[in-house]
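User: For my dataset I need records formatted as: sequence, then structure tokens, nothing else. Please produce one.
Assistant:
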Amino acid sequence: MSEAETVTTATTKAAPAGYRRVFAVREFRAVFAAHLLSMLGVIVAEITLSVLVYDLTGSPLMSALAWAVGFLPYIVGGTLLAGVADRYPARRVLVGCDLVCAVCVLPMTAPGAPLAVLLALRCCLAVVSPIFAGTRMATLADILGDGDLFVLGRSLLRITAQSALLVGFGLGGVLLTVASPRQALLITVGTFLASAVLLRLGTRRRPARARTGGALVTDSLNGARQVLADRRTRALLLLFWLPPTFTVAPEALSAPYADDLGVGPAGLGLLMCALPVGTIAGELYAGSRLRPVTRERIALPLVCVTLLPYLGYAFHPGLAVSLLLLLVAGAGSAYTLGLDQWIVRDVPEELRGRAMTLLTAGLMTLQGVGMALAGAAAELVGVAAAVMGAGVLGTAVCVLAAREVRRTEGRDRG
């Protein structure tokens, strides 16, 4: 019996003990530490690269572009290269992705690196990211099983990502006060290399999930078609993708909204932190206090109401009320724990890596689209109305997507 199975068996005989059960699995501890290092490295790189581009060009547009290129290439890696996650051993893929990322960041530290090279290397990082994330998600099911431990493990990685955003922005800002942008990027190289070592030494080798021949791109596209052809899997992916498309609206518009409120940099910082803090609180509560059956039972009702707090922007609330609305909306993201259980249970194992890679690619791409649409809407109707509109339209979309998930529950596939 494996380490994860031993923990799972013990869990079924007692009340849920929360996240401590996941840390009892040695391999997960290595994955968790590697994830934390990678996240901090990516965030520091994003901040540093944005500053470096601004120093080189003096252009706010080019500095913003350095952020934007982190979203767009996700769809390339998530569709054309998704087959990597299933046709090669997972540990080799994960370590290889970390090494590729380190190799991409290293030239950025060289004095005199042209702007086009910097942006191209940033695109390469974004292409690799969905392959790494999808492979890690699929491997998590191998390490923790496809039950409650997987759900809690996924939740912990999301919580870590949100926490790393909060810590990483501050860490990046402090780092740039004592080091140049190019020196700061060397830290990112170190975090990727450390993550690769942790994954190589801390996880065991597992065979590839699917042995497929032919060209990688053809195999990846065929896999994506297989994943999306399954009605149940397609419905679950849409429910993962669509709510965040609208959830990002207030984050994308934090700066102009803070300016409208006249709250200064401190208020802007609070507005940017409120949604991640709410998300962390909601996931921690659901993961540690609710039983698996309860998390599944509330998932669909919760996803249908998670964007309703945005309707409060119709009244042009002040800072305190705005923060409360964002905290409540963030807490609603606890619905993802129920979705995690369904997708790992319902996706065929031989397609799991490609499905998880596609999930990540679609999630990041649609968040980028959501940010762009929020900005366009704010230009037309103002910031408060744009956030309120995201709440109205997003709620309607979430209800339709939840109905499709309900219809496909327990039915024949296809």
